[in-house]
Design goal:
Layout: H1 3-16, H2 21-31, H3 36-44, H4 47-57, H5 61-76, H6 80-93
Helix pairs in contact: 1-2, 1-6, 2-3, 3-4, 4-5, 5-6
Length: 94
């Protein structure tokens, strides 16, 4: 399983636990030290900037899909945990 999928699963769990996306990014950095810069950006700046840092930190196609899903959620206010869950299933089964 890729690191992006592990992070996606961590974010999904945090979101289902009631955390906001900003809080979930900070929480995920506990288990994924590579996200420390993302957590810092999420704490102190706009959420869009944190997503940019996430994409730059792990510049692979899986991360790009998770970031795109998060950006879509910011526009349509859908259930991001469900989007991350479905995306993780798809990526795991390819």
């Amino acid at each position: 399983m890729s690191e992006a999928i592990d992070i996606g699963r961590s974010l999904e769990a945090a979101l289902r636990g009631g955390f906001s996306l900003r809080q979930a990014l900070v929480q995920a950095s506990v288990d994924h030290p590579g996200l420390v810069g993302v957590a810092r950006a999420a704490r102190f700046g706009p959420l869009e900037a944190a997503l940019d840092v996430w994409q730059a930190t792990l510049p692979d196609s899986d991360t790009a899909l998770y970031v795109a899903a998060a950006r879509l959620q910011l526009e349509d206010h859908g259930n991001l945990a469900d989007k991350f869950g479905m995306l993780s299933l798809i990526l795991e089964r390819r």
